[in-house]
Each structure stands twice: as C-alpha cells, then as structure tokens.
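INTERNAL AUDIT FORM
Audit reference: QA-55
Scope: verify that the stored structure record matches its stored sequence.
Auditor: D.O.
Record contents follow.
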Amino acid sequence: MRNDLDRDLERSLEEPRPAHSRLDAAHLHRHDGRILRQEAALSARDEQAQAVFTVIYRVLAVLAAAGIILLLLWSVTDLPAFGGERNPADNEVARRYLEDGVREGGALNLVANIILDYRAFDTLGESNVLFTAACAVLLLLRRQRRADLPHAPEAIEADPPADPVLRAGAALLSPAILMLGLYLILTGHLGPGGGFSGGAVLSGALILYRCAFGGGRAGQLLTYRVWRGATFAALAFYAVSKAYSFFTGANGLPSVFSPGTPGSLFSAGLIPPLNIAVGLVVCCIMYGFFALFRKGEM
C-alpha cells in the first residue's frame, strides 16, 4: 500500500498541469482525496491486523496457562496419598533427617542441616527471591544519583536530628546487637540461630543506628556499592558452593568439605559459610528496604 502511494505521488508530479487554474485546483483536489482514501484504508488494515494479533495472543496465552495447569494437576495425581502410612514424606525422609542428619551434615542444629544441606537448593531460591524483590524496589523507589540532582542533595538526604536519648541508647545497643547477630550466624550449626535470624538481627542494628545518627553516618558504614557487592558476592558464593556439592553428591565423588566433628565450631562442612552468605543477603535486603522506604536512597 505504501508503494502504491509513492507511485501515485510520482505519477501526479509527472503529469502535466492544466493551464487553467480551476482545472489545476480540481486536479489537486482529486489527487489529495485519493491519497486520503488510501491512507484511511491502510490505517484500517493496520488496526485490523493489530486486533487479529491481540486475539491470537490471548488465545495462545489461555492455552499455555491451561496446559501448565493440566500438567500440574496430572503431576499431583501421581503423588502418594496425603498422610498415608507408606508415604515417603511421613517415614523415610523424616527418619533420615533425624537419624542420619548429624552424621551426614555435621551440624547439631537439624534445621541448619535441612535448609542448608538437604534442602539447600530451596534456600538458594528463597535468597534469590529476596534479591529480586530488592531489585524491584530499587527500580521503583530509588532516586536519581547525586550527580543527576538539579539542586543540593543534602537538603533531601538530611535526616532530622534525633533525640539525645535515642542517640545514647543506639550508641550502647547497636554494637551489642551486631555482636548478637554475628553470634547467631557463626553458631547457627551448633544451636538455634543461623543466617536468616542472624541477618535479621544485624539489619535491626543498622536500622537503629540510622534512625539515631542519620543516613549520612549510616551511609559511611554501608554504602550502596558495598551493599550491592556484598549481596552479589553472597549469592554467587552460595550458588557456586552448592553447585559443587550437588555435582559431587550426584556422582558419588568425595567432597573436600568434611562434616568434621559435630559440636565443634569448625564443623558441618559448608553450612557455616552458607549461613554467613544467607545472613549477608538477609541483612542487606532488610536494611535496603528500610533505607529506600525512608528516604528513597541508600
């Protein structure tokens, strides 16, 4: 259709114009009307093609969703009955965790054995969900960088002065809370604690420090570059280390990370380093959410 319009325009330009001005005006009027009709037909054809594409897209989307639903339902029908006596989840798995968890994982905390050894792949997915949520919040709420601000950023970034009592309390409590969070992370394989709870405690200490002393001093402790690097490094270490464990375990190969002696600080193989990685991710994500929702900037 576009080529037809171009040919008609070239033909009209090459045609000799009538000598009389009235005939020339009539000729141009007929030519303009023909071009307008052709453009209207082309626009209608485009709208029709768009409508057909929309219908096809919706039909294919519904068919794809229905196929996935049917596949999941078919998979569910092949599962053992819920609560059945011969259900592996009710006997073999639980018994394996309770009887062999300490020997195979090396951690006295059976929860740490489960989430960081037996079900480590699920924990990696949970950590990536947290990181993805943080990325979405960054895209939605993070302000422009300081260099892009048209006016002084200090007026935007400055926090109101905190109460002296809050400052004094935060100065005393923040280090103690940080030590508690580190203790929960480093001894998570020996007793209650671990990366999730320890990371939440660490973020609480950073949030208290920021509320008391403002974003300027807190930003010196945990900048955006440090936050991004720590989160990425923790997730990368988790993925690489567990990929190594999955590869050696699936192929029956010996691992260089021995469970060690259960009960000692340096035991449980990769579980303590993985607790540190999970704690970093949880701490950075929770503090990042607070900083973004409070001031729009980290």
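Auditor finding: record pair retrieved intact. The two ends are 54 Å apart (CA to CA).
Action required: none
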